[in-house]
Design goal:
Strand order of the largest sheet: 3-2-1-7-6-5-4
Order of helices and strands: HHEEEEEEEHEEEEH
Oligomer: single chain
Helix content: 40-55%
Structural class: alpha+beta
Largest sheet: 7 strands, antiparallel
Strand content: 25-35%
Length: about 260
């Protein structure tokens, strides 16, 4: 009777070991997927920023902002689907003079905030006169004036980084005075019923922004359950195979002993 009991006692141990291995494996895979997606998102955003930068450095400029230049800005904005506005800003004695798709405007307040990296500025707009939400700003300075593009921030955490992980939240952080500030986030609508959080982050070495991915441990647990069932089936199959192979041997051995007696 001791032999069968000892075998049955191994079943809970086997289940426990499979559960631990499944959780560790799920945690490793989820973290790896998040890190890969964060790095992939950074590279995709860098590509889009470079494309827009190439467009704004070629913008025409006329200090009087004639209608022909405004129409040219409108046409270029239409051709570049990624931007929502293009223009050129020039500093006056006590204000900013802007020529854009909205015509000639003048303001004594700053139009945007952010940080300048080499000859490129990345930041966010300070005014929502023309759009219901703040815009992602890409600008470059040349000969005392700044050519700029306004980008819908939803593109950054939307089509710019597709395909995305459906279980993670994405947050882009822009540099401002040496610190990173959350600029745009894409929330995950899926239910997260376990409080702990996993985070993975990647930073752009070229433009200085960061992309942070977050998910709850419920993602790991759900993934671990799948791996656990697979592991349990595999362990059961291996155990059953060993038992089937060992049973004839045990019967033959018992028969041999009886014959000897």
């Amino acid at each position: 009777m001791k032999h069968p009991v000892s075998k049955l006692a191994l079943i809970p141990l086997m289940i426990f070991v499979v559960a631990i291995i499944s959780f560790l494996h799920a945690s490793m895979i989820v973290k790896k997927e998040m890190q890969h997606s964060a790095e992939y998102s950074v590279k995709k955003i860098e590509t889009h920023i470079k494309s827009i930068y190439d467009a704004i450095i070629a913008l025409p400029y006329n200090s009087s902002c004639p209608l022909s230049v405004q129409k040219e800005y409108v046409n270029l904005t239409y051709e570049n689907e990624e931007v929502r506005a293009l223009g050129v800003m020039e500093a006056q004695s006590d204000s900013w003079s802007v020529c854009s798709i909205f015509g000639a405007t003048n303001n004594d307040e700053h139009y945007w905030q952010g940080d300048k990296l080499a000859d490129l500025f990345l930041g966010w707009s300070m005014h929502t006169d023309y759009f219901p939400e703040t815009s992602f700003v890409i600008a470059t300075q040349e000969e005392g004036r700044q050519s700029f593009a306004y980008v819908n921030p939803r593109r950054i955490v939307g089509s710019w980084i597709a395909p995305r992980l459906d279980f993670a939240e994405y947050e882009m952080r822009l540099s401002h005075h040496g610190e990173h500030r959350a600029f745009m986030a894409r929330k995950n609508d899926k239910l997260t019923w376990f409080g702990g959080l996993l985070r993975r982050q990647a930073a752009s070495q070229v433009y200085g922004f960061e992309m942070t991915l977050t998910t709850s441990y419920s993602t790991v647990i759900l993934r671990a359950c799948v791996y656990f069932l697979r592991g349990l089936l595999l362990a059961t199959f291996i155990w059953f195979t060993i038992w089937m192979l060992s049973t004839p041997y045990a019967l033959l051995k018992a028969k041999s002993i009886r014959d000897q007696l």
